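JOB MANIFEST
job_type = single_chain_structure
chain_count = 1
residues = 453
[input]
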Amino acid sequence: MIEENNILETINMIKLHNLDIRTVTLALSLRDCITDNVDKLCENIYNKIKIYARNLVTYADELSEEYSIPIINKRIAVTPISIIGESCKNPDYIKIAKTLDLAAHDVGVDFVGGFSALVEKGFTKGDNLLIESIPEALAQTQKICSSVNVATSKAGINMDAVLKMSEIIKETAKLTKDTDSIGAAKLVVFCNVPSDNPFMAGAFCGFGEAEAALNVGVSGPGVVKAAVESLDKYADMSELANKIKSTAFKITSTGELIGRKLAKRLEIPFGVIDLSLAPTPALGDSVAGIFQAMGLEHAGACGTTAALAMLNDAVKKGGIMASSHVGGLSGAFIPVSEDAGMIEAAQKGYLTFNKLEAMTSVCSVGLDMIAIPGDTPTETIAGIISDEMAIGMINKKTTAVRIIPAYGKSSGDWISYGGLLGEAPVMDVNGLSCANFVKRGGRIPAPIHSLNN
């Protein structure tokens, strides 16, 4: 049982070091909404969201005030819409996306995730229709987030899907060019996607999940940074790791308390707590800042990957002792545009595309919120995605690509979204062609260690 008095010691974390509940996400199954009429389907979806989520924002705000803990985002994650829509005689995924968006507006949540498809071994008709509709759906809605899983450690990498998604990303960026291609910031390509992730843009309610559940994502890079800075600068790696573990325990305990109380008020089960350190553009709330506290001159210096590996592991070890229901992504995010330290490192050239890729081998989640030139070839984007999928497939971990080909912009220009999405410089991309490789299509086979039944 969690002792509420233990939460009092986190008060300075909240006031001084930007500790917050980054998201409370209602995972909601839409399986019972399925019908062969798209209008009826949309009606079912809207009504179910209204029933289950009508008090989500109100209750979350009440708990935030009661415990003086900021709850930044309230979100909904639904069953992958490719599955829900394909039983209709005339599927209209744009109409479904607009219904989800309307429901999100009406219940007051920030985002709805689940405009998604799982195509690691191939496509169904519904998968194809949904994927083709993604650019228009993201251009015509405000709160919809989309994800597509194209690889797993068991299935290998669907290279047809990789190439297709690179085209979809480019088209999404083009259709939202007037807002710095923001549509691409709400679209992510996964390997080994988890079915209970509370973070956007990759959240959805997996097919094996409950009717409804409350998943929580906690953020505390500023808290971890302050904890590291409290140590003697000559403290060894074991002391450093232990300090991070104990801090992660406290952060996780806070999230567990709020999550369970909110789930009880909503009369749904508590799902999981995601241990991920999710930064923001605010000063002092940066994963890159933790690296500097550890002793690196800046993110991107030699040793950054090792520092990230230790940070990621220590956070998980500390968090797992505070909760028996850990899930989602659970690691350290390194989104370039959403982390003030990462933004600075990219701007100064300390953090290169190649270094970011190396870091993804040890962290969650992958190449995240990276702006690249708008004229980057589709095949090059497919190559970037395939490299990241290979890291996830071989290492049996979740990896992802949320990349923004900023329409009309070149290396050195900037994109700017404000809020949690932040801003970032447009980064250089390797100009060597991989077109003949990615156009081969088919499926890269799963590695031999996948045969572990």
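[summary]
The chain has two domains: 22-191, 219-443.
The two ends are 36 Å apart (CA to CA).
exit_status = 0
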